[in-house]
Amino acid sequence: MTCEQSVPLKHSTGTGFVIPLGNVNLVGVVARNGMVGCGAIDVAALDKFGYAAARVRPTCGPSVTGIDDLMVAEVKEANEGARRLGIREGMTGKEALDLLS
Predict the structure, then answer these.
(1) In which order are the strands placed within the sheet that holds 34-37?
(2) 14 burial level (CB within 10 Å; 0-12, 13-18, 19+)
């Protein structure tokens, strides 16, 4: 069952989602100007559509299982659109989402 929730960000409110896929979850937050997602998100493909996106790797545990995990996870990759907005590897998911808000 898909779970959706509002996520307060610096300049707006994002929409977080958790979609169970067997033994893992697809986790992301969509902000006003792009999104941050778990390792299953293809940021290069989204870049081809001009959509700013970054993916994170977990800092607590073996995977990103929910919105709270995503917020503290570390940006592993950002596409060109996200980089233009200031997103860099190593920042937290929350920091990246605030730049996208």
Answers:
(1) 3-8, 13-21, 24-31, 34-37, 53-57, 74-78
(2) buried
Among 63, 66, 60, 90, residue whose Cα is nearest residue 78 = 90
Give the global pTM. Answer: 0.95
User: Rounded to an integer, what distance in angstroms lies between the CA atom of residue 22 and that of residue 2?
Assistant: 12
How is domain 3-100 classified at the CATH fold level?
Hypothetical protein Ta1206 fold (3.30.1980)
What local confidence, expressed as pLDDT, does residue 69 receive? Answer: 96
Instruction: Say how far apart CA 96 and CA 45 lie, in whole Å.
Output: 19
The 10s digit of each residue's pLDDT in 11-56 is: 999 999 999 999 999 999 999 999 999 999 999 999 999 999 999 9
